[in-house]
Design a protein that fits this description.
This protein has 348 residues and is mainly alpha-helical. The protein is 38% helix and 3% strand. The chain has helices at 3-6, 17-38, 135-160, 237-242, 262-269, 280-344; strands spanning 173-177, 193-197. The relative contact order is 0.03.
């Protein structure tokens, strides 16, 4: 509870400058809040405020004290343009996709864009395009062609003549004009006026006002041939891998100093696109080496067996000699012992 609510109201009014400034500040904030909801805040209180909508400019210009790109009433703003075609339907209510092929051609030009246009058309005698014209149509066409040719010839002759006469102007036309504002103070009190319109006379010696030697763009070419597409189908993983195009990476220049992985360099080198072809002489060489190695192993094994047999024979021979020497030594020892026994025996 505040102390001012308990104490009685003062008898005399006391002037306080701080209270007055606080009240003014509160009123300013209230005005700025209300203004921001509808229009721009007053001058001097636009700090932090940015005009975004057309209503923020209040039918006026930009705010110079706000350093933000502003487009009052949409002036100097880029207009988004699109070259998309409007959706068109045929008599059956289906979408006319051939509007893209007709883009840039005249309305009378024939553009073949359907499968039915490729099929031969049956011609009958009752078709209007095959009926010969009657005499009136032939006479009318002849007169129009004659007038057009005469006009071209006259223009060529008049342009080649050194002195040209002024062209005849057309007859005057009278137009009745009724002003929208009626009364004594308008149109001199008259309700209607009659205007006489006359074609201005052209000076035959006047030089041309406009340049006519400009290059005119050529007319659109002949209608494109119909392109028949097969029905769409899903792309397999193999086709996706085949359509992967490696990036163009140079092995000599890297002006921007990019860090290029080794797998990307190998992919750009084109080594994976080359088919590996091994010469048949490699197989012959491998087979010859295998045969030579096998024969060498066989010869080494045979030589080892022969050496083993010779060593066994030498060992057997040595053992036989040792056996004979031992036998001889035993025999000699046995004979000596017999002789000694005979000498020592007593006589009978």
């Amino acid at each position: 509870m505040a102390l001012s609510s308990v104490l009685p109201a003062p008898v005399q009014n006391v002037y306080d400058r701080d209270d007055e400034e606080a009240e003014k500040r509160f009123q300013t904030m209230t005005v700025a809040t209300v203004a921001s909801a509808g229009a721009a805040p007053p001058y001097g209180h636009r700090k932090g405020w940015v005009p975004r909508k057309t209503e923020d400019f209040v039918d006026g210009g930009a705010f110079p004290e706000i350093p933000v790109a502003q487009y009052p009433l949409g002036m100097a703003q880029k207009q988004k343009s699109s070259n998309a075609l409007a959706l068109q339907l045929d008599a059956e209510g289906k979408i006319k996709y051939d509007a893209i092929a007709r883009q840039g051609h005249g309305k009378d030009k024939v553009v073949y864009s359907r499968f039915s246009d490729l099929l031969p058309k049956e011609m009958t005698e009752d078709e209007e395009s095959l009926i010969r014209p009657d005499d009136e149509v032939v006479k009318e066409t002849t007169e129009r062609t004659k007038e057009a040719l005469e006009m071209l010839v006259c223009n060529k002759i008049s342009a080649a003549m050194p002195i040209r006469r002024a062209e005849n102007t057309g007859p005057a036309q009278y137009i009745r004009y009724t002003p929208s504002q009626q009364g004594e103070g308008f149109n001199s009190g008259a309700k209607q006026r009659i205007i006489r319109m006359v074609e201005a006379q052209k000076d035959p010696m006047e030089p041309p006002r406009f340049k006519v030697n400009k290059k005119i763009p050529q007319a659109p070419p002949s209608p494109p041939a119909p392109v028949m597409h097969s029905p769409t189908r899903k792309v397999t993983v193999k086709e996706q891998q085949e359509w992967k195009i490696p990036p163009c990476i140079s092995n000599w220049k890297n002006a921007k100093g990019y860090t290029i992985p080794l797998d990307k360099r190998l992919a750009a080198d084109g080594r994976g696109l080359q088919s590996v072809h091994i010469n048949e002489n490699f197989a012959k060489l491998a087979e010859a080496l295998y045969i030579a190695d096998r024969k060498a192993r066989e010869s080494v094994e045979l030589r080892a067996q022969v050496e083993k047999r010779l060593a066994q024979k030498d060992k057997d021979k040595k053992e036989e000699n040792l056996r004979q020497l031992a036998q001889k030594a035993r025999e000699e020892r046995a004979g000596l012992r017999t002789a000694k026994q005979g000498e020592t025996a007593p006589p009978e």
